[in-house]
Specification:
heterodimer; A: about 220 residues; mainly alpha; MetI-like fold; B: about 220 residues; 8 helices; elongated
Amino acid sequence: MGYQLDFWALAGYLSLFVQGAGTTLALTAVASTIGIALSIGGAATARWGVRWARSLIAAYVELIRNTPFLIQLFFIFFGLPSLGIRLTALQAAVLAMTINLTAYSIEILRAGIESVPRGQREAGLALGISPMAVFIWVILPQAVANVYPALVSQIVITMLESAVVSQIAVVDLTHVADYIQSRTYRAFETYFAITLIYLCMAISLRWLLARAGSKLFLGRPR
Amino acid sequence: MISLSVWEIVHFLLLAARWTLLLSAIAFLGGGTAALLLLFLRYAQPRGGATLVRYYIELLQGTPLLLQLFLVFFGLPLLGIEVSPLLAAAVALILYAGAFLAEIWRGCVDAVPRGQWEASAALGLNFISQMRYVILPQALRIAVPPTVGFLVQLLKATALSSIVGFNDLTRAGTIVTNATFQPFLVYGLVALIYFAMCYPLTVCSRFLERKLGSY
């Protein structure tokens, strides 16, 4: 075989790599923050909401969890404009990632809420604290602490799945790879390098969040 | 622009869905075999294999499937292997499923009480017989629900094969959209067909989990 691997061909594109990684991380950060905030409300509704709201949440969760992310993305980016909702690629990507993450983290947080002993709520209410305050200050911290590792995994999965948004021309890390390989004709080397960057990002993100968790939930029995 | 009736679109998409199912089946059977090999490697003495398996799983679970797919698609030709989209997608998904199933099944094997290993060793069974007759049959019981659950994830993952040009359900959706300019309808239908394939598996997994329970 005459093919020689040549990673030096990529050296000139370093700034693009950094830019793409930045976009991927920013997308993940925004989607995770909004997604987890929404899913706290969603999980609480799934647990204590009125019946129609509970069914609505259940339907949403099942629909999202049983269809591919790529299709959700295409539906939002290509399909919604026919309803008059026109989104840029970046907005569509954030929306799709948020909708996707929310469905998964509702399930995770719901399990967390269910793992908090019933007595905690009863004790809080007996002390005359309002139900809302009991949820926010008593139940939620314990629930999140219980399922924190699962939430971290879900955030990392969201970052890895975000590679797909390159398909609607969001200039994320994968899209940068597509561009570079079209310029250098070094497809394997480019994708190899980008894969390693994703791996490093996934490992550091997991490490960072785990560390933040051990600080955040200090002193809780694990 | 071509105008097709909804029924014609559904018919076309359903034909393509067969390829999605075929690819899922190949990936599941291939991935299951790979995972079984990894599982044996992980528990075999000497323990050197376990580290290797851990790195493999970490690598496959820590990188995007799309990139794995591209690496196979552009990497195999460097080894002198001609790749069709089906071959590339099948190889990538087998590697992917192998890593996930190996990790899921490890949890199930670890759930088998230690005494079972010790008792079977005391009876003079060698490693293969221990796995074959004592450990795996017990692990199987708790492995079924999460394995069916993973099948949903795998089926959804096959959608990425459309990106390297495999004519699966997703790519059929793109083709029909490009012909009819009705993305809302077509991608909606595609999503519904995926849902119709995945949801029964989800329900099945949940039912089995209740029925078989844990230890």
